[in-house]
Structures are given as C-alpha cells and as structure tokens.
C-alpha cells in the first residue's frame, strides 16, 4: 500500500513539473509589480494605522478614461496618493524631471520614464476632483503625494536631484511609526490641528467613497502572488459554471477558495465561499457566506492590467478574488 502511495506521489510531482499547462503559471514579471503594491500598502498601513486602497481607477473628466492610482493612504488628518515604482537598477533624474533606469544586467537597455512626481501630482488632482464630485471637498493641504521606489535592488545617483516627494527603498525601510522620525514629514498631518469631529467626518467620507470607487479586480494566487486586472468569466464543465453563475460583480464582492489535499495529492473538488455585496459594511459576517462545490479543473479567465492577453488560472491555484463594483 505504501509503495503505491509513494509511486502515486512521484507520478503526481512529475505531472506538475513537466505536463501541467503553462497557462496556470504566472511569470514573476507579471506579478512582481502587483506584489510590490500590496507589500508597500501593508507596510504603510502598519506604520500609520490608516487604511490603504490599492489599484483605484478614478474617472478622469479630461481624458474620459479611468486614471489608475496605485495606492491611496487615508490616515488621521491626511490622505496621500502613492505611486509605487518597482524599479531595479541605477535610477537617475534628468533636468526635465524624467527618470532613467539602467539595469544591472548588460542585456537590458535603459528604461525611460516620464516625470513620476508630476504624474502622481496629476493623479492627486484627478482624485481630489472626483472626491469633490461625490460630496467630499478636502481642506487645502489635506491631500499630498509620494513616489516610492519599492525594489531592494534599486540605486539612486545624485539623490539631491530627486524631489522631496520621492522615498527610496532604504528610506521606506527606515520609516518608523513614531511621529518624530526623520521621514515623518511626508505624513505631515496638515489638518491634525483641526477639530477632532471634523477630522473623523472627513475620514469617514473618504473611506466610504474610496471603498465604493472603481478599482481593478484582484486575484490572489498561491505563493502570495497578486494580479490586478479584470475578471471575465469561469470556464469548465457546464454544471460547474452553472453553479458559479451567481458570482457576478453586481452581486458579489469577494470569493475565497478552500481546498484540502491528502498526502500532497491535488483535490478533485473545491469549496468556493462567497458573500453578497454590501456597501453598508466592510465585509460579510460568517453567517452571510455561501458556498458551492466545483471541480478543481474549473478555470478563471482574467485579463491582467496593462496586458492584452487573457490568462487562464485553475481554480485550484486561486486563494481569493475581489471584484470591483
């Protein structure tokens, strides 16, 4: 019996390594940027005790198209628009404010970027207009912006040429939650001197508006991999797709995939938990979760942000999925 089990494990591992489809594997290059967003967002939330909104798509009246904003940090007395640049290599700034990133590898050409600080300030202006349209006019100086270099292998030359809005990776790692730390000026608390009731009112309005604002769908995969993009549909056996038909962005905000395996074998069926969308609260209570069982071969069709390629992911590799309204 044990010999059969061991042989089965060997065959399964062989299948996973050599036979399984590449469509189920996400290249690091496709997930590294999204992972950097969530990593920076988690760190900022822990440091400043606020809420962080990732992957917002704020309507831009000038271009009639959504403006993607990496992160918005809402803390007491301030909101910060954060652009995360996951650059690896030597970064320098030109006289016109544009950046050049030269990779450590000789096989890669220099990467040129338009002025990230100017772009982030524009995003902050678009967000401020959007908030005003939804009935939340911010006091002057309440909204600021920052550009964070999130990659540990980034180097900067002539750091004095970088605007004060730029936070390097080393500076990010040195940030402390104490307000007296040397970098705390970027969470300057411009409005902290105001009335506590007014601060709380603005924070509540911001939290409600940003939690209901358009944003990219979010796919979390095994191995702490994240992808921002757009969920399209489920693919698989007819009865499985039919069982999942209730999971639509108009009705469902989040689903969680639970799986059990025996001795390393992939489960044949999965339990999918999902909760009805409710704008009145941040999440559903345990009593509101509903479940459906489907085959593990069922697939999720998802189009990553800034990609024209639609990817297929087996539901067995998915941890959770969040859908924008």
Written description of the protein model:
By secondary structure, the protein is of the alpha+beta class. The protein is built from six helices and 17 strands. The strands form three sheets. It has an eight-stranded antiparallel sheet with strand order 14-13-12-17-10-11-15-16. The protein is globular, with a radius of gyration of 22 Å. Residues 8-27, 180-184, 189-193 and 282-286 have low confidence and may be disordered.
Shape: globular
- Name the poorly predicted regions: 8-27, 180-184, 189-193, 282-286
Strand order of the largest sheet: 14-13-12-17-10-11-15-16
CATH classification, class level of the largest domain: Alpha Beta
How many DSSP helices? 6
Averaged pLDDT, please?
Answer: 82
CATH architecture of the largest domain: 3-Layer(aba) Sandwich
Q: What summary fits the major beta sheet?
A: 8 strands, antiparallel
Write a short abstract of this structure.
InterPro entries: NERD (IPR011528). It is built from 6 helices and 17 strands.
